Amino acid sequence: MSDHRSSAPSPLVLLLKVLLILCVLGMLAAGFSPLYQAFMRLTGLGGAARAQTVPASQQVWLRIEESTPGQAWQVRPLQGPQQVKPGQFVQLMVEVRNNQPHFAAMQALPVYLPASAAAYVQKLECFCFAQQLFSPGQVRRFPVVLVIDKQLPATLRQISLAYQIRDQPA
């Protein structure tokens, strides 16, 4: 007599096979993705054309924007717009005034224009790194030290830096 057992695999075996196939496909996709991206970057296919970077001799205009008068906090640059070379350290000075009639704490938040410039500016020293305490009407001067990345796209010829000031609990 012959044994008529079902030749269908058990659900556990099927599940393990499906998991194995998914793992292999995931590893292949992860391995090919960097290769695919590198190929697209090199060839400029698929809209991933290589951006031209600023030549070493080219300079970029950098300016700190003054805040709107009449607000609780006033930020004023102590220099006008400057031409700077990407890759070089730049130090700018700003003056911050507490226009409120009481002690106050604030935190400055940098805003870059155009917004895409933020990826190419590295601040090394800034009053925005920590909360600042001010007495009523106090004016303080702060250095802002930064470096503009040498990989800055050639289309970015001007960078403006503004600060939004937020009151903080003292």
TrEMBL record:
TM annotation in the entry: 12-32
A Pfam match: CtaG_Cox11
Main localisation: membrane
Membrane topology annotation: Single-pass type II membrane protein
Entry keywords, A to Z: Copper, Membrane, Signal-anchor, Transmembrane, Transmembrane helix
UniProt subcellular location: Cell inner membrane
Family: Belongs to the COX11/CtaG family.
Protein name: Cytochrome c oxidase assembly protein CtaG
Originating organism: Vogesella aquatica
